[in-house]
Amino acid sequence: MEIGKVPENILKRAVFKQLHHRREEVLVRPGVGEDCSVVGAAEDEVFVFSVDPITAAGRGAGTFAVHVTANDLASSGAEPIGLMSSILLPPRTREKKLRELMQEMELACKELNIEILGGHTEVSDAVNRPVITVTGIGKAKKGSFLSTAGLRPGDELVMTKWAGLEGTAIIAAERKEKLLETLPGELVDTAASFLQYLSVVPEASIAAASGATAMHDVTEGGIFGALWEMGAASGVGITAELMKIPIRQETIEVCEVFDINPYRMMSSGSLLIGCPNGNFMVRELEKEGIPAAVVGRATETNDRVVENVDETRFLEPAGSDELYKIYQ
């Protein structure tokens, strides 16, 4: 495709043909010449918005784009409704690539029962890989939504699934040949399959109904970054125990190849939950097949630390995510 707006015939074939209507709240859907979408909400509901850019180039980029945005909404206690997407493609991108990208996004939307509401698609020489910017729209009952800032001293911290999930899946997909130089193919394939764990929508719903005081999805900066951000947003201290943070062996092996700290690597698919009773929260999540563990607590101090045997590590604001080492 050449620089400029995607031609109407390609837009119809590669984009609109992939999309399906599934939410009654959506009153005006995507179409040629439609610059806006219309979504309705009940009188006692509020809209919640979130925006995320995705620059992953390989297969799965559309899946990441949908889940990362839906996770942000769910972490606030909102029910995701749909998303608006802006897609920038490098020159000479084939129509097949755009169609596959839209198919990935639509499949993820179907799994989450949400819709692609509209957006913009363009070919630009300003990018050398696809860039997807997604704005998510969700709804919540007035007064019932949560924030990262709701953590209180004494609350326990529960983490779902495993550290480094998203980064592990990306490394296995984008650096497979390098990994296969030293790691078994079965391990690399399992690492790539972590893509299936990206959504935190189910656990966020359970947590919100089970007494959560704050939630934060673990994205860039990994679990160490998420612990810092939750503590900073809430104005409390954090004490976490390294040995209690769950992590898969596949993640450890993959990260060692690139000298990556998995606890500082993006981990969409993992949710950090603040709550009065961590063990109760873990039991409620495990009833629905979601692995979880109590990893720490909020304190009245200003210190945010991770303890490991005789060593104490002070947490810092998240800098550049460890995942970017694979591109250096």
Supply the CATH class of the largest domain: Alpha Beta
CATH architecture classification name of the largest domain: Alpha-Beta Complex
Computed structural class: alpha+beta
Rg from C-alpha positions?
20 Å
Distance between the termini: 29 Å
Task: Enter the CATH topology name of the largest domain.
Answer: Phosphoribosyl-aminoimidazole Synthetase, Chain A, domain 2
- Tell me the number of structural domains: 2
Q: Which outline best applies?
A: globular
Instruction: Walk across the major sheet and give the strand order.
Output: 9-11-8-12-10-13-14
Topology (SSEs and partners):
Blueprint (H helix, E strand, L loop, with lengths): L3 E2 L2 H8 L10 E3 L9 E2 L5 E10 L6 H15 L3 E11 L5 H18 L2 E9 L7 E11 L14 E5 L4 H10 L1 H4 L5 H8 L8 H9 L4 E4 L4 H13 L2 E5 L7 H9 L13 E5 L2 H10 L4 E8 L4 E5 L2 E4 L14
Parallel strand pairs: 5-6, 10-13
Antiparallel strand pairs: 1-6, 2-3, 4-7, 5-7, 8-11, 8-12, 9-11, 10-12, 13-14
What does this structure look like?
The chain is an alpha+beta fold and 328 residues long. It has 2 domains: 4-141, PurM-like, N-terminal domain (60s Ribosomal Protein L30, Chain: A); 148-327, Phosphoribosyl-aminoimidazole Synthetase, Chain A, domain 2, CATH 3.90.650. Helices cover 32% and strands 26% of the residues. The chain has helices at residues 8-15, 61-75, 95-112, 165-174, 176-179, 185-192, 201-209, 222-234, 249-257, 278-287; strands spanning 4-5, 26-28, 38-39, 45-54, 79-89, 115-123, 131-141, 156-160, 214-217, 237-241, 271-275, 292-299, 304-308, 311-314. The strands form 3 sheets. It has a 7-stranded mixed β-sheet, with helices on both faces. Helix 3 links the parallel strand 5 (79-89) and strand 6 (115-123). The radius of gyration is 20 Å and the shape is globular.
